[in-house]
Amino acid sequence: MQGYSEKEVKEKWNEIKPTELQDIQEFLERLFGSLYDELSIMKQKLSELQDRIERIEIEIGIQEVPRRAIDLTKLIEAVSNYLREKKEAYPSDIADYLNVSEERVMEALEVLKREKKVGEVE
Prior knowledge:
The chain is mostly helical. Helix 3 packs across helix 5 and helix 4 (91-98) crosses helix 5 (102-114). It has helices at 6-15, 18-60, 72-86, 91-98, 102-114. The N and C termini lie far apart (82 Å). It has five helices and no strands. 73% of the residues lie in helices and 0% in strands.
């Protein structure tokens, strides 16, 4: 490929007529707009397929129900609200209800115990 000097590029650019520039711009917009639309559709269909595969794996027992991620502050509030309503519960029950791991519930309960907002029932 031959390299062009800046002067040569400017000369070539100035040779292009405004109508040609408009035609080129419209062509590129159609080309890339169409490609973008098709790519968006393909991404959506791929996402739908991944969701369907995940649901099937859960149904047949290949995969566990995914636990959601939640920051500790929000989890502490959610656990506190759950216990306010239920009065007492096993950590596993709270974890199932909130769809988080039992370990994360235990972290939240430890904070609530230190703050003396919950206690253990024997």
